[in-house]
Write a structure and sequence with these properties.
By secondary structure, this protein is mainly alpha-helical. It has six helices and no strands. The protein is globular and about 30 Å long.
Amino acid sequence: MSPDAAAALALQVTAWLARDAERLGHFLGATGYPAGALRQRLDDPDLLAAILDFVLQDDQWVLEAAAEGGYDPHQILLARRCLPGGDAPHWT
């Protein structure tokens, strides 16, 4: 997957996240991002990586986001690997 394709998929996941106020609130609380800054930084690969990291914490979220977007759930992990920090070792 190319970095551009990864960013596009991350934007789809971001839209899925934003459609649920409670889930979005959890993301904002966990990361400290203000809601307004989130909209202004949607072209920031680091933010997109953080969104994918957040969603990847919960298998159900991954399945729901993928189902709504019409893509294989594994694509979310592949996209994360193409964004900044995605090549870092994962110890969990």
